[in-house]
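Predict structure. Chain length: 270.
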Amino acid sequence: MEDLLIALLREQVLRELGFRDIFKRVKDEENAKAISLFAEVIRLNDAIEDDSKRLENLVKGIFAGNIFDLGSAQLAEVFSRDGMSFLASCQNLVPRPWVIDDLDTFKLRWSKKSWKKVIIFVDNSGADIILGILPFARELLRRGTQVVLAANDLPSINDVTYHELIEILSQLKDDRGELVGVNTANLLIVNSGNDLPVIDLTQVSQELSYLSTDADLVILEGMGRGIETNLYARFKCDSLKIGMVKHLEVAQFLGGRLYDCVFKYNEVSS
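Prediction complete.
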């Protein structure tokens, strides 16, 4: 709750002073770079025939993409100085086991049965959404799952907004409305009603609340939404909290390392 209040006060002060989307130019540049790499990332994922190994590669892609976070002072400094390489980040992740590592349990569930509807609370622009989340969402679509991507209503740091995500997908889809050969009829983009890098799940939009009534998996991605505010949140359906630890105090609280990974999966017994 303290993290939520601090984030709320920060955004309120910035907007009162006229700073509504201070990272707009950076987001646009990173989105363009990531869009140019999307097809190659998909090709590399699709080339992995083993389902379990392909899933792990997709998960590592989410972590690698989640590095692009200008809400972390250390990462913002590295980004401004050296830039960031998505493929290099995939290779340089903290090795497993991660500080919270339920990936093997998730793999087992993945191999047994597909979820019918998945809600994903997305995080950052650039490589995070385009090279991390969207390839994962595309894999779910291939398995016959309906995927709902919930994005911020208003800008906050470099988080992707609802309107930006619609534009990104319009650039990635082909003339048939497909994402590299996968039909997107079951892919929905929804305004989460949120305007912060963290989220209070009691304050989501009416549309998202309605769409969530029959979800059987909820995914909270990113340190703000998945770790700092909802790591121990309990759901009536399966849930996954996934994100990279980018603040030292959070790493210390979890007993892990800076840039460690959190993959916390909770399955609800039927």
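Summary: The first strand starts at residue 100 and ends at 101.
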